[in-house]
Write a structure and sequence with these properties.
Blueprint lengths: L2 E2 L15 E4 L3 H12 L4 E5 L7 H7 L5 E3 L4 H4 L5 E3 L8 H8 L4 E2 L1 H8 L4 E5 L4 H14 L4 E5 L5 H4 L7 E5 L2 H5 L8 E4 L13 H9 L7 E5 L3 H4 L8 E4 L9 E6 L2 E6 L2 E5 L8 H15 L5 H10 L8 E6 L2 E5 L6 H11 L5 E5 L11 H8 E6 L4 H8 L4 E4 L3 H11 L5 E4 L12 H17 L1
Parallel strand pairs: 1-4, 2-3, 2-5, 3-4, 5-6, 7-9, 7-10, 8-9, 10-11, 11-12, 17-21, 18-19, 18-21, 19-20
Antiparallel strand pairs: 13-14, 14-15, 16-17
Helix pairs in contact: 6-11, 6-12, 13-14, 16-17
Protein backbone atom coordinates (compact mmCIF):
# COMPACT_ATOMS: atom_id res chain seq x y z
CA UNK A 1 0.00 0.00 0.00
CA UNK A 2 1.52 3.30 -1.06
CA UNK A 3 -0.27 6.50 -0.12
CA UNK A 4 1.20 9.40 -2.08
CA UNK A 5 -0.59 12.69 -1.69
CA UNK A 6 0.05 16.38 -1.26
CA UNK A 7 -3.26 16.77 0.54
CA UNK A 8 -3.80 16.56 4.26
CA UNK A 9 -4.26 12.98 5.46
CA UNK A 10 -6.88 12.29 8.12
CA UNK A 11 -7.02 9.44 10.62
CA UNK A 12 -9.67 7.82 8.46
CA UNK A 13 -7.03 7.35 5.78
CA UNK A 14 -4.96 5.06 8.00
CA UNK A 15 -7.34 3.11 10.30
CA UNK A 16 -4.11 1.72 11.68
CA UNK A 17 -2.02 1.96 14.83
CA UNK A 18 1.74 1.79 14.35
CA UNK A 19 4.56 0.78 16.66
CA UNK A 20 6.56 3.60 15.07
CA UNK A 21 6.27 6.25 12.39
CA UNK A 22 9.49 7.25 10.63
CA UNK A 23 9.68 10.89 9.61
CA UNK A 24 11.90 11.47 6.58
CA UNK A 25 12.75 9.07 3.78
CA UNK A 26 16.39 9.77 3.09
CA UNK A 27 19.28 7.42 3.74
CA UNK A 28 18.76 7.59 7.51
CA UNK A 29 15.01 7.02 7.28
CA UNK A 30 15.52 3.96 5.08
CA UNK A 31 17.99 2.51 7.61
CA UNK A 32 15.31 2.96 10.29
CA UNK A 33 12.78 1.10 8.13
CA UNK A 34 15.13 -1.85 7.74
CA UNK A 35 16.04 -1.90 11.42
CA UNK A 36 12.48 -1.71 12.75
CA UNK A 37 11.06 -4.25 10.32
CA UNK A 38 13.81 -6.66 11.36
CA UNK A 39 12.60 -6.12 14.93
CA UNK A 40 9.07 -7.05 13.88
CA UNK A 41 7.62 -3.56 14.37
CA UNK A 42 4.60 -2.28 12.49
CA UNK A 43 5.67 0.99 10.88
CA UNK A 44 4.70 3.77 8.51
CA UNK A 45 6.77 6.46 6.83
CA UNK A 46 5.92 10.10 6.24
CA UNK A 47 7.80 12.87 4.44
CA UNK A 48 6.99 16.45 3.53
CA UNK A 49 8.44 15.83 0.06
CA UNK A 50 6.38 14.22 -2.68
CA UNK A 51 9.40 12.37 -4.05
CA UNK A 52 11.93 11.81 -1.25
CA UNK A 53 15.37 10.38 -2.16
CA UNK A 54 14.81 6.76 -1.06
CA UNK A 55 11.20 6.33 -2.20
CA UNK A 56 11.99 4.01 -5.11
CA UNK A 57 14.26 1.85 -2.93
CA UNK A 58 11.55 1.56 -0.29
CA UNK A 59 8.94 0.59 -2.90
CA UNK A 60 11.25 -2.07 -4.31
CA UNK A 61 12.29 -3.58 -0.97
CA UNK A 62 9.22 -3.03 1.23
CA UNK A 63 6.17 -2.42 -0.94
CA UNK A 64 3.71 -3.09 1.90
CA UNK A 65 5.03 -0.30 4.16
CA UNK A 66 2.51 2.60 4.19
CA UNK A 67 4.06 5.88 3.01
CA UNK A 68 2.39 9.27 3.42
CA UNK A 69 3.93 12.05 1.34
CA UNK A 70 3.42 15.74 0.69
CA UNK A 71 3.34 16.80 4.34
CA UNK A 72 4.28 15.56 7.80
CA UNK A 73 0.83 14.84 9.14
CA UNK A 74 0.14 15.10 12.86
CA UNK A 75 -2.66 12.55 12.47
CA UNK A 76 -0.22 9.91 11.25
CA UNK A 77 2.22 10.66 14.06
CA UNK A 78 -0.53 10.51 16.68
CA UNK A 79 -1.43 7.01 15.50
CA UNK A 80 1.97 5.67 16.64
CA UNK A 81 3.68 4.68 19.88
CA UNK A 82 6.86 6.49 18.93
CA UNK A 83 8.19 8.85 16.28
CA UNK A 84 11.60 8.23 14.70
CA UNK A 85 12.79 11.59 13.44
CA UNK A 86 15.34 12.01 10.65
CA UNK A 87 17.96 14.67 11.50
CA UNK A 88 16.92 16.97 8.68
CA UNK A 89 13.49 17.55 10.31
CA UNK A 90 13.42 20.11 13.11
CA UNK A 91 11.81 19.45 16.48
CA UNK A 92 9.80 22.64 16.12
CA UNK A 93 7.93 21.26 13.10
CA UNK A 94 4.23 21.77 13.88
CA UNK A 95 3.28 18.09 13.59
CA UNK A 96 6.31 16.97 15.63
CA UNK A 97 5.42 19.45 18.38
CA UNK A 98 1.88 18.06 18.53
CA UNK A 99 3.22 14.54 18.97
CA UNK A 100 5.54 15.70 21.76
CA UNK A 101 2.67 17.54 23.49
CA UNK A 102 0.66 14.29 23.42
CA UNK A 103 3.48 12.48 25.20
CA UNK A 104 4.63 10.41 22.22
CA UNK A 105 8.39 9.75 22.42
CA UNK A 106 10.33 11.45 19.61
CA UNK A 107 13.93 10.43 18.91
CA UNK A 108 16.28 9.57 16.07
CA UNK A 109 18.32 6.73 14.67
CA UNK A 110 21.31 7.46 16.92
CA UNK A 111 19.13 6.91 19.99
CA UNK A 112 17.99 3.56 18.57
CA UNK A 113 21.65 2.70 17.94
CA UNK A 114 22.70 3.67 21.46
CA UNK A 115 20.00 1.47 22.97
CA UNK A 116 21.46 -1.58 21.18
CA UNK A 117 25.23 -1.03 21.01
CA UNK A 118 27.34 -3.45 23.05
CA UNK A 119 30.93 -2.37 22.28
CA UNK A 120 32.77 0.95 22.80
CA UNK A 121 31.85 4.03 20.77
CA UNK A 122 34.09 6.96 19.89
CA UNK A 123 31.87 9.94 19.08
CA UNK A 124 32.94 13.07 17.18
CA UNK A 125 31.14 16.36 16.62
CA UNK A 126 32.03 19.98 15.96
CA UNK A 127 31.25 22.78 13.54
CA UNK A 128 34.31 21.98 11.44
CA UNK A 129 36.70 19.09 10.93
CA UNK A 130 34.55 16.23 12.19
CA UNK A 131 34.70 14.15 9.00
CA UNK A 132 38.49 14.46 8.87
CA UNK A 133 38.86 13.46 12.52
CA UNK A 134 36.36 10.61 12.20
CA UNK A 135 38.28 9.21 9.23
CA UNK A 136 41.64 9.61 10.98
CA UNK A 137 40.45 7.84 14.13
CA UNK A 138 38.99 5.02 12.05
CA UNK A 139 42.21 4.58 10.09
CA UNK A 140 44.38 4.74 13.21
CA UNK A 141 42.34 2.14 15.06
CA UNK A 142 42.07 -0.12 12.01
CA UNK A 143 45.82 0.13 11.47
CA UNK A 144 46.26 -0.93 15.10
CA UNK A 145 44.41 -4.16 14.28
CA UNK A 146 40.92 -3.39 15.56
CA UNK A 147 37.70 -4.39 13.78
CA UNK A 148 36.11 -0.96 13.39
CA UNK A 149 32.76 0.18 11.95
CA UNK A 150 32.51 3.83 10.87
CA UNK A 151 29.45 5.94 10.09
CA UNK A 152 26.73 8.18 11.45
CA UNK A 153 26.69 11.60 9.82
CA UNK A 154 29.53 10.43 7.57
CA UNK A 155 29.06 7.48 5.24
CA UNK A 156 26.84 4.67 6.47
CA UNK A 157 23.86 5.27 8.80
CA UNK A 158 24.55 4.14 12.36
CA UNK A 159 21.81 1.48 12.40
CA UNK A 160 23.33 -0.23 9.36
CA UNK A 161 26.57 -0.63 11.30
CA UNK A 162 24.84 -2.94 13.77
CA UNK A 163 24.74 -5.56 11.00
CA UNK A 164 28.55 -5.73 10.84
CA UNK A 165 30.02 -8.90 12.31
CA UNK A 166 32.73 -8.84 14.92
CA UNK A 167 32.87 -5.08 15.42
CA UNK A 168 35.12 -4.14 18.33
CA UNK A 169 34.72 -0.36 18.08
CA UNK A 170 32.28 2.08 16.51
CA UNK A 171 33.55 5.47 15.33
CA UNK A 172 30.64 7.86 14.77
CA UNK A 173 30.48 11.34 13.33
CA UNK A 174 27.46 13.04 14.92
CA UNK A 175 25.81 16.29 13.90
CA UNK A 176 23.98 18.63 16.24
CA UNK A 177 20.74 17.57 14.53
CA UNK A 178 21.40 13.92 15.43
CA UNK A 179 22.40 14.77 18.98
CA UNK A 180 19.21 16.76 19.61
CA UNK A 181 17.16 13.56 19.82
CA UNK A 182 19.77 11.32 21.48
CA UNK A 183 19.47 10.54 25.19
CA UNK A 184 21.27 7.23 25.80
CA UNK A 185 24.72 7.96 24.37
CA UNK A 186 27.56 6.97 26.69
CA UNK A 187 30.61 7.10 24.45
CA UNK A 188 33.91 5.56 25.50
CA UNK A 189 35.47 8.84 24.31
CA UNK A 190 33.86 11.91 22.77
CA UNK A 191 34.88 15.28 21.38
CA UNK A 192 33.33 18.55 20.28
CA UNK A 193 36.12 19.83 18.05
CA UNK A 194 34.96 23.45 17.94
CA UNK A 195 31.83 25.58 17.94
CA UNK A 196 31.26 28.43 15.50
CA UNK A 197 28.01 29.85 14.11
CA UNK A 198 26.29 27.33 11.83
CA UNK A 199 22.70 26.31 11.16
CA UNK A 200 21.49 29.62 12.57
CA UNK A 201 18.41 29.13 10.42
CA UNK A 202 17.52 26.25 12.76
CA UNK A 203 18.83 27.43 16.14
CA UNK A 204 17.67 30.52 17.97
CA UNK A 205 21.19 31.30 19.21
CA UNK A 206 24.75 30.04 19.29
CA UNK A 207 24.09 28.87 22.86
CA UNK A 208 21.27 26.60 21.66
CA UNK A 209 23.53 25.18 18.96
CA UNK A 210 26.34 24.57 21.47
CA UNK A 211 23.89 22.91 23.87
CA UNK A 212 22.97 20.38 21.20
CA UNK A 213 26.65 19.67 20.55
CA UNK A 214 27.33 19.23 24.27
CA UNK A 215 25.03 16.20 24.39
CA UNK A 216 27.85 14.16 22.88
CA UNK A 217 29.53 14.30 26.30
CA UNK A 218 26.62 12.54 28.03
CA UNK A 219 27.60 9.55 30.16
CA UNK A 220 30.85 8.92 31.97
CA UNK A 221 33.43 8.33 29.22
CA UNK A 222 36.55 10.33 28.37
CA UNK A 223 35.93 13.96 27.45
CA UNK A 224 38.36 15.20 24.79
CA UNK A 225 38.39 19.01 25.03
CA UNK A 226 39.68 21.67 22.64
CA UNK A 227 41.48 23.94 25.06
CA UNK A 228 41.67 26.71 22.44
CA UNK A 229 37.88 26.97 21.98
CA UNK A 230 36.21 28.89 24.81
CA UNK A 231 32.76 27.43 24.11
CA UNK A 232 34.07 23.86 24.15
CA UNK A 233 36.34 24.48 27.14
CA UNK A 234 33.27 25.57 29.12
CA UNK A 235 31.77 22.10 28.56
CA UNK A 236 34.51 20.53 30.71
CA UNK A 237 33.22 18.66 33.78
CA UNK A 238 35.57 18.46 36.78
CA UNK A 239 34.15 15.11 37.87
CA UNK A 240 35.00 13.45 34.55
CA UNK A 241 38.16 12.07 33.02
CA UNK A 242 39.39 14.74 30.59
CA UNK A 243 42.23 15.01 28.10
CA UNK A 244 42.74 18.19 26.10
CA UNK A 245 44.43 19.30 22.90
CA UNK A 246 45.78 22.71 21.97
CA UNK A 247 47.97 24.46 19.42
CA UNK A 248 50.12 25.53 22.38
CA UNK A 249 52.67 23.61 24.42
CA UNK A 250 50.82 20.81 26.23
CA UNK A 251 50.57 20.56 29.99
CA UNK A 252 50.76 17.20 31.74
CA UNK A 253 49.77 14.31 29.46
CA UNK A 254 47.65 16.41 27.13
CA UNK A 255 48.21 16.88 23.39
CA UNK A 256 49.73 19.99 21.84
CA UNK A 257 52.64 21.38 19.83
CA UNK A 258 56.24 22.21 20.73
CA UNK A 259 58.58 24.45 18.73
CA UNK A 260 62.09 23.05 18.67
CA UNK A 261 65.07 24.06 16.51
CA UNK A 262 62.79 25.66 13.95
CA UNK A 263 60.50 22.61 13.75
CA UNK A 264 56.94 22.22 15.04
CA UNK A 265 56.28 18.88 16.73
CA UNK A 266 52.89 17.37 17.59
CA UNK A 267 53.29 15.94 21.08
CA UNK A 268 51.63 14.21 23.98
CA UNK A 269 53.16 15.86 27.00
CA UNK A 270 56.90 15.87 26.33
CA UNK A 271 56.66 12.91 23.92
CA UNK A 272 57.36 14.04 20.34
CA UNK A 273 55.11 12.16 17.90
CA UNK A 274 55.38 13.72 14.43
CA UNK A 275 56.65 16.92 12.82
CA UNK A 276 54.03 19.21 11.34
CA UNK A 277 55.90 19.12 8.02
CA UNK A 278 55.37 15.35 7.90
CA UNK A 279 51.57 15.57 8.06
CA UNK A 280 49.75 14.55 4.91
CA UNK A 281 47.09 17.18 5.64
CA UNK A 282 48.08 20.85 5.60
CA UNK A 283 47.06 23.91 7.58
CA UNK A 284 46.93 24.91 11.25
CA UNK A 285 43.34 23.68 11.56
CA UNK A 286 44.47 20.24 10.46
CA UNK A 287 47.15 20.23 13.16
CA UNK A 288 44.28 20.60 15.63
CA UNK A 289 42.36 17.83 13.86
CA UNK A 290 45.39 15.53 14.07
CA UNK A 291 45.81 16.23 17.79
CA UNK A 292 42.13 15.51 18.46
CA UNK A 293 42.31 12.26 16.49
CA UNK A 294 45.35 11.13 18.47
CA UNK A 295 43.66 11.92 21.78
CA UNK A 296 40.65 9.81 20.77
CA UNK A 297 42.72 6.95 19.36
CA UNK A 298 44.84 6.95 22.50
CA UNK A 299 41.73 6.19 24.54
CA UNK A 300 41.70 2.70 23.00
CA UNK A 301 45.48 2.24 23.33
CA UNK A 302 46.53 2.85 19.73
CA UNK A 303 50.36 3.13 19.79
CA UNK A 304 51.82 6.56 19.02
CA UNK A 305 53.87 5.04 16.21
CA UNK A 306 50.68 3.87 14.47
CA UNK A 307 49.13 7.32 14.87
CA UNK A 308 52.19 8.95 13.30
CA UNK A 309 52.25 6.56 10.35
CA UNK A 310 48.55 7.16 9.69
CA UNK A 311 49.08 10.92 9.77
CA UNK A 312 51.92 10.67 7.26
CA UNK A 313 49.79 8.70 4.79
CA UNK A 314 46.46 10.50 5.17
CA UNK A 315 46.21 13.27 2.57
CA UNK A 316 42.72 14.47 3.46
CA UNK A 317 39.16 14.06 2.26
CA UNK A 318 37.74 15.42 -0.96
CA UNK A 319 36.28 18.95 -0.68
CA UNK A 320 38.00 19.55 2.67
CA UNK A 321 41.02 21.80 2.09
CA UNK A 322 41.91 19.49 -0.80
CA UNK A 323 44.87 20.49 -2.94
CA UNK A 324 43.70 20.20 -6.55
CA UNK A 325 46.83 21.09 -8.52
CA UNK A 326 49.39 23.80 -9.19
CA UNK A 327 49.22 25.62 -12.53
CA UNK A 328 51.87 28.20 -13.47
CA UNK A 329 53.03 28.31 -9.84
CA UNK A 330 49.48 29.06 -8.59
CA UNK A 331 48.07 26.45 -6.17
CA UNK A 332 44.36 25.62 -6.23
CA UNK A 333 42.54 24.35 -3.11
CA UNK A 334 39.00 22.95 -2.88
CA UNK A 335 37.38 23.48 0.53
CA UNK A 336 33.77 23.35 -0.64
CA UNK A 337 32.90 21.73 2.71
CA UNK A 338 33.62 25.11 4.35
CA UNK A 339 29.88 25.75 4.54
CA UNK A 340 30.03 28.15 7.50
CA UNK A 341 32.03 31.16 8.64
CA UNK A 342 34.19 29.26 11.10
CA UNK A 343 35.25 26.74 8.47
CA UNK A 344 36.12 29.50 6.01
CA UNK A 345 38.23 31.29 8.63
CA UNK A 346 39.98 28.04 9.57
CA UNK A 347 40.74 27.38 5.91
CA UNK A 348 42.17 30.86 5.31
CA UNK A 349 44.29 30.95 8.45
CA UNK A 350 45.43 27.39 7.90
CA UNK A 351 46.72 28.05 4.37
CA UNK A 352 47.83 31.69 4.51
CA UNK A 353 51.45 30.77 5.19
CA UNK A 354 51.61 29.12 1.74
CA UNK A 355 51.01 32.35 -0.21
CA UNK A 356 48.66 35.23 -0.89
CA UNK A 357 45.06 34.05 -1.17
CA UNK A 358 42.41 34.68 -3.78
CA UNK A 359 39.18 33.54 -2.12
CA UNK A 360 36.09 32.23 -3.90
CA UNK A 361 33.11 32.49 -1.54
CA UNK A 362 29.33 32.80 -1.40
CA UNK A 363 26.13 30.77 -1.39
CA UNK A 364 23.42 30.52 1.25
CA UNK A 365 24.71 31.95 4.54
CA UNK A 366 21.83 30.39 6.53
CA UNK A 367 21.30 33.67 8.41
CA UNK A 368 24.75 33.42 10.01
CA UNK A 369 26.62 36.44 11.34
CA UNK A 370 29.30 37.05 8.70
CA UNK A 371 31.12 39.87 10.49
CA UNK A 372 34.01 37.76 11.77
CA UNK A 373 35.12 37.17 8.17
CA UNK A 374 36.21 40.80 7.77
CA UNK A 375 39.43 40.92 9.85
CA UNK A 376 40.64 37.55 8.55
CA UNK A 377 40.00 38.51 4.92
CA UNK A 378 41.63 41.89 5.42
CA UNK A 379 44.74 40.25 6.85
CA UNK A 380 45.21 37.28 4.54
CA UNK A 381 43.19 37.68 1.30
CA UNK A 382 44.23 39.83 -1.69
CA UNK A 383 40.97 39.45 -3.61
CA UNK A 384 37.53 37.89 -3.08
CA UNK A 385 35.39 36.48 -5.88
CA UNK A 386 31.73 36.20 -4.88
CA UNK A 387 28.80 34.19 -6.19
CA UNK A 388 25.48 32.86 -4.92
CA UNK A 389 22.41 34.22 -3.22
CA UNK A 390 24.26 35.90 -0.33
CA UNK A 391 27.25 37.23 -2.28
CA UNK A 392 26.24 40.83 -1.57
CA UNK A 393 26.00 40.12 2.18
CA UNK A 394 29.62 39.04 2.18
CA UNK A 395 30.60 42.05 0.08
CA UNK A 396 28.89 44.35 2.57
CA UNK A 397 30.88 42.76 5.39
CA UNK A 398 34.21 43.03 3.53
CA UNK A 399 33.68 46.67 2.68
CA UNK A 400 36.15 48.60 0.51
CA UNK A 401 39.37 47.45 2.18
CA UNK A 402 39.75 44.31 0.04
CA UNK A 403 39.05 44.06 -3.69
CA UNK A 404 36.07 41.92 -4.62
CA UNK A 405 34.10 41.06 -7.76
CA UNK A 406 30.82 39.28 -8.42
CA UNK A 407 30.40 36.38 -10.86
CA UNK A 408 27.40 34.33 -11.91
CA UNK A 409 28.82 30.81 -11.73
CA UNK A 410 31.83 28.72 -10.70
CA UNK A 411 33.38 28.59 -14.17
CA UNK A 412 33.48 32.39 -14.28
CA UNK A 413 34.89 32.45 -10.73
CA UNK A 414 37.75 30.13 -11.64
CA UNK A 415 38.55 31.99 -14.86
CA UNK A 416 38.60 35.34 -13.03
CA UNK A 417 40.78 33.90 -10.27
CA UNK A 418 43.21 32.57 -12.86
CA UNK A 419 43.51 36.01 -14.47
CA UNK A 420 43.98 37.68 -11.08
CA UNK A 421 46.54 35.25 -9.63
CA UNK A 422 50.30 35.69 -9.75
CA UNK A 423 53.04 33.10 -9.28
CA UNK A 424 53.16 32.06 -5.63
CA UNK A 425 49.48 32.84 -4.97
CA UNK A 426 46.88 30.27 -4.02
CA UNK A 427 43.22 30.19 -5.03
CA UNK A 428 40.93 28.88 -2.32
CA UNK A 429 37.30 27.81 -2.65
CA UNK A 430 36.04 28.24 0.92
CA UNK A 431 32.49 29.55 0.49
CA UNK A 432 31.51 30.25 4.14
CA UNK A 433 28.01 29.33 2.93
CA UNK A 434 25.86 26.33 2.12
CA UNK A 435 25.58 25.29 -1.52
CA UNK A 436 21.89 24.57 -2.00
CA UNK A 437 21.08 27.86 -3.70
CA UNK A 438 23.09 26.72 -6.75
CA UNK A 439 24.04 23.05 -6.31
CA UNK A 440 22.66 19.76 -5.05
CA UNK A 441 25.24 19.71 -2.24
CA UNK A 442 28.75 20.87 -1.34
CA UNK A 443 30.21 17.85 -3.17
CA UNK A 444 28.72 18.94 -6.48
CA UNK A 445 29.95 22.49 -5.90
CA UNK A 446 33.46 21.17 -5.26
CA UNK A 447 33.32 18.91 -8.30
CA UNK A 448 32.32 21.84 -10.51
CA UNK A 449 35.24 23.85 -9.10
CA UNK A 450 37.73 21.04 -9.73
CA UNK A 451 36.42 20.54 -13.27
CA UNK A 452 36.82 24.24 -13.98
CA UNK A 453 40.39 24.21 -12.64
CA UNK A 454 41.23 21.17 -14.78
CA UNK A 455 39.78 22.95 -17.79
CA UNK A 456 42.26 25.81 -17.27
CA UNK A 457 45.18 23.48 -17.77
CA UNK A 458 43.55 21.89 -20.81
CA UNK A 459 42.92 25.22 -22.53
Amino acid sequence: MLCVTEKKITMNDTKQHYDAVIVGLGKTGLSCVRYLLKKGSTIAVTDSRVNPPELSTLKNEFETVPVYLGEISAEILLSSDQVILSPGVALDNKAIKQAIEKGIPVFGDIELFCQQVKVPVIAISGSNGKSTVTTLVAEMTQQAGMNVSVGGNLGRPALDLLNDKGTELYVLELSSFQLETTFSLNAHAAVVLNVSPDHMDRYASLDDYALAKKKIYSGNGLMVINQDDDVVNAMRETSRKVISFSLSKPEGNNFGVIEEHGETWLCQGEQRIIKQTELGIKGEHNVANALAAMALAGSVDVPLSVMAETLRKFSGLAHRCQWVKTINKVSWFNDSKATNVGACIASITGLCSLGKIILIAGGDSKNADLSSLKPVIQQHVKKVILLGIDAKKIADVIGSDVEYEFVTDMKAAVELASKSAEAGDLVLLAPACASLDMYENYQQRGDVFVAAVNALEAS
